[in-house]
Amino acid sequence: MVKTIKTRELGGETMVKRIHLFLLLVVLSIGLFACSSGEVDSTDDTGTDEAESVTDENNEEATVNEDATLKVALQSIPPALDPHITGSTMTMELARPVFESLVAFDSNFEPQPVLAESWDVSDDQKTFTFHLREGVTFHNGKEMTSADVVASMNRWKELNATATRVLGPGEFEAVDDYTVVLTLEDSNFVTFNILALPAQFAAIMPEEIVGGAGSGAVEEYIGTGPFKVSEYVSDQYLHLAKFDDYQSLTDAADGLAGKKEALVSNIEIDFVSDDSTRVSSMVTGEYHIGRGLPYDNFDQLEADANVETHIHEGGTDFIVFNKEEGFFSNQTARQAILAGLDKVALSLGTYSDERFFDMNHSLSLQEQVNWYSDAGAELYNQNDPEKAAQLLEEAGYNGEEITIIASNIQTHHNTAIGLQAQLEGLGMNVKLETYEFATILEYRNDPSNWDIFIVDLATESIPTTYLFYNPTWAGWTDSEEIQDLLDGIQTASNQEEATALAADLQAAFYEYVPVIKPSNRQLFNATNTSINGYDFFSNGMILWNVSVEE
Amino acid sequence: MIKYTLNRLLAIIPVLLVVAIVIFSIIHLTPGDPATVMLGSEASPERVHELREELGLNLPLPQQFVQWLTGVIRGDLGNSVFLQKPVLDVFISHLGPTFSLAIFAQIIAIAIAIPLGVLAAVKRGTFVDQAIMSIALLGISVPSFLLGLFLILFVSVHLGLLPVAGYQPLSAGLIEHLKYLLLPAFALGFMQSAIITRMTRSSMLDTLTQNFIKTARSKG
């Protein structure tokens, strides 16, 4: 007994040292682990050349695995799978391989036939006759006819706010089994651009399915696309399977048009909202495609030999002025802010690195050949505080408080903070109020609440449909010139006329300044090197023509 | 005993009612409603109004509450606006994985804690005891979400042994099921095990110093 106690006492004396040693070991092993992760990265770096040459040699031998399952990690849960009811880009992305429309955009944003084979347009541009492709079957085996097209298109036209607004009154009607006619009250040059809208798109579904759905989501997901829905658990995953009877077009694949082939037998899309989990899953190769990855992990994934990184255009965080009341109802005041902003600094503050934004003055992308314009480019990023001060004086600024409201969404918030700092630099008195997104959606409808708010909008496929031109939308644009130009484009008789008017519209945009465009935000996605044919168009990935190597 | 149980159960009712009223009011205190959020930036005011009517959000608040409450009493928890499914179905479909995870985490916790606790008590005051107690301290101090991230980094990314994320039901096979549960269960169980280890150690120590143990010892 005594002996035991002694041993314990002896143990007690050396215990402190031992515990210290133990803790030191724990800390050291954590440190070693951290270092060894770094070392792995660096060996990956040096090993890249080797790995690439091996892949090059193997490229000819690399065979496509047609039974493969393509696995995708999506960053958030889509609100629905029915593309008629929501403008969510997540919904658009998931619905793309399942549903098709009469027309769709090619990579230059020009409408091309998909389920329509051809069309005739009356001289007054009020009557549009679509000749449908024959022998196209739905996923349930039924052949697509005009009845399905009429039911789907009329439901879509009613539910899509842009279509309702731009196309005005008018309905689709069946002429025979393979011909439908759209008759509008007013002539409309941009009809096909509206019918090809990429988000909240005009999906064709069987008549009996859309008939019973009303304005709620359809209960069955039956389309004509290269993949059919095999299982959908709305808060967890979407599983798609190859549709064997798919009738592909034969023209080369181009944007959302042309040939679509299901090169894998299944697609599994998981909704993985945690950023670090998506990044880790790309490193381990659990997913072939990772969507909406955090900018902070770009370098890490770029250094990984098994991962390819992709940067895609992803819309703009706009600065919207209240033109109904307050200081910015004065056009000169808005011009002052446009003159004074340093948009590179502002965008750096929002996106952290110049790789993640693109300084583009136009409201269209360069690929949008029919709409891209240089009009107003000289006013885009003036960064001229003296001119701003002079214009502010002209506008009669006398130190009144300017209220910016922004949601807590990171890019909104970052833009608002940068803007506040720059406006204060111009000698203005600025208050920033940050709210939750739902609150902003409500607050912004009352002009007495704010002077500036931040909103992110996708790049529109035609520049006339930007919400900030709409006189009833928050911000309340009230410009006769802009309205005339919008009407002019709508009633143009040919593309040259419309293109010229779009340039005038952009010039008017820089004169009237309904909103300020800082830069184009870039999205960051990654793919595993074992897949081929990955493409991304208008805010969403394209999952057909993607193959997985064995 | 039965009377006591019944009394306690009855006492829950007013508590639940108050909680329900408070939560219901908090949701409606903040501006913005589900209809605006669901339809997003581009929705027209008419569509928002339409949806509000469809969802019953235009009714007076007390009426909305009573409607919900009478539903709940009848076992109807309503429909999830976001998932477009009955809330009860969603609730039930999530019970399985929750139970699996909870049970597995408990098993891990006990499997780690009891032997370690006993060992620490038997080797009281030695290096082994102190080491075990240090690990237990670490277990209590490190939050499970952080441990989870470290485990993902080390076991999944670094060693590539287990999946980073996902879930497979029991019907996919026990091994497959456990493969996905092991890391989250360990992250949850480790913290539990730290507490149980300390409890086991102290109750073991109590017992070890009791007279009957001493008597047994002295008898050889």
TrEMBL record, chain B:
<dbReference type="InterPro" id="IPR035906">
    <property type="entry name" value="MetI-like_sf"/>
</dbReference>
<keyword id="KW-0472">Membrane</keyword>
<dbReference type="Pfam" id="PF00528">
    <property type="entry name" value="BPD_transp_1"/>
</dbReference>
<keyword id="KW-1133">Transmembrane helix</keyword>
<keyword id="KW-0812">Transmembrane</keyword>
<dbReference type="GO" id="GO:0005886">
    <property type="term" value="C:plasma membrane"/>
</dbReference>
<dbReference type="Pfam" id="PF19300">
    <property type="entry name" value="BPD_transp_1_N"/>
</dbReference>
<comment type="similarity">
    <text>Belongs to the binding-protein-dependent transport system permease family.</text>
</comment>
<protein>
    <submittedName>
        <fullName>Dipeptide transport system permease protein DppB</fullName>
    </submittedName>
</protein>
<dbReference type="InterPro" id="IPR045621">
    <property type="entry name" value="BPD_transp_1_N"/>
</dbReference>
<feature type="transmembrane region" description="Helical">
    <location>
        <begin position="9"/>
        <end position="29"/>
    </location>
</feature>
<feature type="transmembrane region" description="Helical">
    <location>
        <begin position="99"/>
        <end position="122"/>
    </location>
</feature>
<keyword id="KW-1003">Cell membrane</keyword>
<feature type="transmembrane region" description="Helical">
    <location>
        <begin position="177"/>
        <end position="196"/>
    </location>
</feature>
<dbReference type="InterPro" id="IPR000515">
    <property type="entry name" value="MetI-like"/>
</dbReference>
<dbReference type="GO" id="GO:0055085">
    <property type="term" value="P:transmembrane transport"/>
</dbReference>
<feature type="transmembrane region" description="Helical">
    <location>
        <begin position="134"/>
        <end position="157"/>
    </location>
</feature>
<feature type="domain" description="ABC transmembrane type-1">
    <location>
        <begin position="95"/>
        <end position="220"/>
    </location>
</feature>
<keyword id="KW-0813">Transport</keyword>
